[in-house]
Amino acid sequence: MEEARxxxxxxxxxxxxxxxxxxxxxxxxxxxxxxxxxxxxxxxWAGIRRxxxxxxxxxxxxxxxxxxxDLLLIDETLPPIGGxxxxxxxxxxxxxxxxxxxxxxxxQTDQIRTLCFQAGATDLLAKPVNPGECVARVRYHLERRSxxxxxxxxxDRVERDLRQARAMQLALVPDPAWLETMAARHALRVESxxxxxxxxxxxxxxxFEIDRSRLGVFVADLSGHxxxxxxxxxxLHTLLTRLPREDRAEPARLLGLLNQRLADILTVGxxxxxxxxxxxxxxxxxxxxxxxxxxxLLGSRGGFxxxxxxxxxxxxxxxxxxxxxxxxxxxxxxLFLCSDGLTEARDGSGAMLGEEGLADLVERAVRAAPERPFxxxxxxxxxxxxxxxxxxxxxxxxxxxxx
Amino acid sequence: MDFTVQDAxxxxxIRLHGRMTFSDxxxxxxxxxxxxxxxxxxxxxDLSGLEFVDSSGLGxxxxxxxxxxxxxxxxxxxxxxxxxxRLITVAKxxxxxxxxx
Lengths: 403, 101
Prior knowledge:
Chain A has 2 domains: 25-153, Rossmann fold, CATH 3.40.50.2300; 172-400, Phosphatase 2c, domain 1. Chain A is 39% helix and 23% strand. Chain A has 12 helices and 15 strands. Chain B is built from 3 helices and 5 strands. Chain B has a 5-stranded mixed β-sheet with strand order 1-2-3-4-5. The chains are: A alpha/beta, B alpha/beta. Chain A binds chain B through residues 221, 223-225, 268-271, 273, 292-295, 309-313, 316-317, 340, 344, 352, 354-355, 391, and chain B through 22, 52, 54-56, 58-60, 62-63, 66, 83, 86, 89-93, 95-96. Chain A: InterPro entries: Bact_Sigma-Reg, CheY-like_superfamily, PPM-type-like_dom_sf, PPM-type_phosphatase-like_dom, Sig_transdc_resp-reg_receiver. Chain A: Pfam families: Response_reg, SpoIIE. Chain A: One of its GO terms (biological process) is phosphorelay signal transduction system.
């Protein structure tokens, strides 16, 4: 460090300096000792305490790594190759791509100034350097760098947190190996898609075994999306897993209990639409109850038909009562469930898929790919609506093995 | 979504237009600001200009109903059509709200 401390005023012209820059590090590259001392003094007035110097290009390149400056002041005539060429060298190195570089130059032609900017200089200082201007420009670039670094650190932290939350959310839905075992035990094929529009979202689904002949499936979509609805999805999942088996065996009772508990904890205007169905392979039935979910489709030999999924959304109205309905579900039949991320998706022209559009797409999938309609269906969906979703999306294809 | 407010002696009609979705929470706050009326005043949402509501939009209806109850206002909705009508029916909101013909 040069001796910049002596007789420095608290601030230049009595100006307010703004945010403290005492921990910022500035590297001055100038072959004139006089200039280095003058600039050091100016920087000191700017509130900068950590100043390093280099007298040539090679010396700068030697020290920059250990100094890790927050700002670089380079003289345009720095030997041996000059400031402009040096600036290009530094910008070619990813480590210094964002570093503010202030070039000081005695030559003031527009051409020289343009050359400096083209070489990657952040800003220019005319020589002889005026202290007020120098302080203002250095502070401006350091403060800007501070803000960018803060934003970047914040974004990195949030991204890290969201990545972790996302992994937790993906762990809420059934583990593929477990699901496969369970499906095989109940003579079913279960295929699923579970995607969030942001890093995390408000959809949740799960499956649960009631006994050797009955398998339950539960799909819910919390209103809104993003973090708030993801938190509510976790709450709902916890409530669901805590219900004893006998409560889960009866869909309307299950929805009633979840509604009651959610109504206690959700704020006004938040709710979950949901569908709960139990596939019973001994009775050949699907027993189900719904809370305003998109209409499920039930496919049999005669084609697909829409099941009534009307019902008050969970958590919106305390005391809501749900209805258990039952319909035949024979070997070879299919149950297709989804969240509104599918039915309300809009294509490039703004047109929505809609429930009729979805039913049509399902019929086409069965005709086009009778062995595995679901992947075909989701591929066509992605073709038309893209993969950058506006809402969370859950889709389940549950097919009973042909008898 | 856009909205217009029309005041009469004992009632206020709020006409909602366009698409009412997740991104309209801020606009909806202004709608709710119109609920600053004396007890017994009637608030009516006219939904005939609404093309679409998503589940966040349904949540906003529920917030409006709740706000009205807290302020002892009379609250009703009318004129829902197509997708909006279908969504209200699927969520059975017609059982919980006063729906004017």
